[in-house]
Amino acid sequence: RAKDEGGSEHCQYEPTLHVHAEERRKLEASLRHALERDEMSLNFQPVVDANDETVVSFEALVRWNSEEHGFVGPDKFIPLAEDTRLIIPIGTWVMEQACIEACNWPSHVRVAVNVSGEQLIEPDFASTVIGALSKSGLEANRLEIEVTESIFLRDANVARAALEQVIALGCTVALDDFGTGYSSLGYLRKLSFSTIKVDRSFVQGAVQGSAESLAIINAVVAMAESLEMSTTAEGVENAEEAEFIRKLGCKKIQGYYFGRPMPAHDARQIFVREGLRRA
Ligand code: C2E
Ligand code: MG
Ligand code: MG
Ligand code: MG
């Protein structure tokens, strides 16, 4: 294992590297049993219409409460799951649970599920989606798949073909964290995305007076409009930011201001408050 991490001679002189690998090995061993031990759960974060502030969808966000490691954030275990292929069973579980929960919501409310590139290039990705839809009874048009631009870096054609299959089923695809990493406008032509999600860093930047961030949001909104795509601003944390973003023309807003990621039970209470019942 140490050899994989950069050569055994390295390890002798840099014990921290070894500790790091050991830590990772332990995390991986625990992650391998997380599903069967029932340690995974989903939180749901509301996305609201920028104009009337009603909930239009929830994004499903996976949580891991490990017996050995306590709460581990997705930013830490998702990359590990991707490296070890554990993202395949975990992703399938997330997809199913998200679809099952969405059946408890009013029928105009959709659910968004994050999908990694590793999942998309599995030959049976579309079958996984079909399975989750039929098992839950959720209509395909209520499921949105969220992907990042990174899926186009490797096996781009395979990933695109997989997404086209689920679009054919009636699902929609959103481009997540837009503007971070490997952004290229060319990616927007590769698929009919329904929504572009503007990364939180631009929202925060624009509110704090960054001319670059503001220019990028304006450009994304204009481009999305001409391509008949919707826009969601991520990471809106207060009323001032919400108003600012609404004026820029973003169609939907997601962020702590309108609701943090919350357990399924709490998400359902939002509809009780909005006076909506399951349709
Ligand atoms: P993401 O898909 O961009 O999800 C949004 C992240 O921003 C979430 O972090 C959410 O809690 C956080 N967030 C939302 N509103 C605000 C805000 O107003 N302020 C701040 N500071 N943060 C906000 P989370 O839940 O830690 O997830 C991190 C990332 O992990 C996600 O980013 C997504 O890329 C990945 N992830 C989460 N669940 C899954 C999953 O089921 N499958 C896959 N493949 N990836 C997942
Ligand atoms: Mg997302
Ligand atoms: Mg995002
Ligand atoms: Mg993100």
UniProtKB/TrEMBL annotation:
What keywords tag this UniProt record? Membrane, Transmembrane, Transmembrane helix
Does the keyword DNA damage feature in the UniProt annotation?
A: no
> Per the database record, which ranges form the EAL domain?
24-275
Could you tell me what this protein is called?
EAL domain-containing protein
Origin species: Pontixanthobacter aestiaquae
